[in-house]
Amino acid sequence: MNCLPHCFMKTNVSPKKHILLYTVILSAVLVCLFLCAVRFGSAPMSAKAFWSAMLGKEGFETERLILFSVRLPRAIAGLLAGIGLSVSGVLLQSVTDNALAGPNIIGVNAGAGFASALMLSFLPAASPFLPAASFAGAFLTTLLIVLTAGRSRSKTGVILAGIALTTLFNACISLLTLLNDDILISYNAFSIGGFAGVPTDRLLLPAIFILVSFSIALLFGRQMDALCLGEAGASVLGIPVRQVRLVCIFCASASAGAVVSFAGLLGFVGLVVPHITRKLTGCRGRALLFFSALFGGCVTIAADLAGRLILAPTEIPVGIMMAFIGAPFFLWLLFRRRNSV
Amino acid sequence: MGLSIALQEVRYKHKIALSHISFTVSDGSFTAVIGRNGCGKSTLVSCIGGLIPYIGEITLNGIPLSALSQKNRAAHIAVMLQQLRTPHITVRDLVVFGRSPYLGIADRITETDHRRIEDALIAAELMDIADCYLDKISGGELRRAYLGMTLAQDGEILVLDEPTANLDLDHASRFIHKLRSLQTVGKTIIAVMHDLTQAMKADQIVLLDNGNQLFTGTPAAFLSEGWSEKIFHAVPVRTPEGEVFFTVK
User: Fold this and answer.
1) pLDDT by residue (tens digit) across A210-233?
2) Which residues of B touch A219 (CB under 8 A)?
3) What's domain A13-35+80-340's superfamily in CATH?
4) Minimal-distance CA residue of chain B relative to A222
């Protein structure tokens, strides 16, 4: 019987070797992309200047400033955003048992965005705590969505509830921008999503949120995986479903909220990356979380790099690039799989 | 000792689903729970599996199940539910889930777990389809896959809700034969069944109707008291080999 659809399963490679293979490939691609993101940008820089600046040689102060104040924080922001949103997507898809769930689809990003906008409007002095506000917004929205998922028997109900909440939160953000001119200026960039001008110090707290959530999610990977058997199916296996769900919601919200606090409402990553990773690797649970994080980092860094280079010196925000790259690739994968079955 | 069930009442909001249910399942026996649709059979399974609250007590070797942790309960009582999901995972992945009661958050699957998984795959005749995806196999194979998961759980009591649903006569018969063979390795089996013919192969019959327990006893007593005619309008016919099947009146 032919029931091994994943591309590498056609070979006689063992699952453990698959995991090693994917880890090596994805890590290598991520490192290359990260270096490219630091090396290339709108300001041209020779390879010699790049390495000299990196090694701290004298006479390359301008290049050093560009690398360490602009490009490196930006590459780190891309990496963190990719990890955070992808992990959030995997967790949300598990906890809602819905393949269409993603932080931007079911309103988690919008909830985080609204909380951020609220804080910037009324408590601008507390802006260092923006990730915490984003997390609170994302957490409450996710909780609301999961409660809706519990009441609604159809999977479409979750998505519709998410669309309703996204619309509501976006309307609230728009209202806040109308009332407060100061946040109107940055609203456009915020709604599209991007990493331009993100300073390193603004990344520290989100990085902690994202990496801690990722680590906790990895610990609960097996239990999270069993949620695919449904609440009753997982419960009879001795899995504390409510606690696992709560942990997943907590981690998904913390990750998405942290990303929103520095990258704005960056869409598509949380929905598409887990799907593509699942289709390419056929992995689940911890392996899916790990590979999604690596692949998510690759995708966001690549999208940001492409956005900086294609129309240089004009920049295309990463949110737009994500839509241009992600959507066709996702469709291609979808049709490729359908044709091969 | 075994499993002792003494339920006063189980409610779904305003509807009483089960009332005054009391019977004991002795160690190593095979009990078939039968009854018409909506009589409360699956509710009983949910109570044993700890999925719904109930008034009363279910004890395992004298210890109330409510006193056991969810994990501990799952290690003793393996439940196969009626509604079987088909996520995009392989049969082997599903069987691995059966080891969940023995694995902590950060634990890795041990050699013992691997042995139990292989044993379960062999016992449920799943070796040929171990790497197939659940959404690509037949209904009967899916039942067997879930049985494999239940066996990997390694509980002394197996509670199976409609284990022979979607199976043809031959496979249903083999499935029941398989369950009976599990008794020889000390497993206690409680199976919710629709098929009266298959149910007559059990050691004990529990008949439910409209949430009440009408009968508990051996298949012979069930037949001699005429419960099949009274409840199911089914007339028992005995073959020369001693097997019983039913015809509808």
Assistant:
1) 999 999 999 888 888 888 888 889
2) 105-106
3) ABC transporter involved in vitamin B12 uptake, BtuC (1.10.3470.10)
4) B105
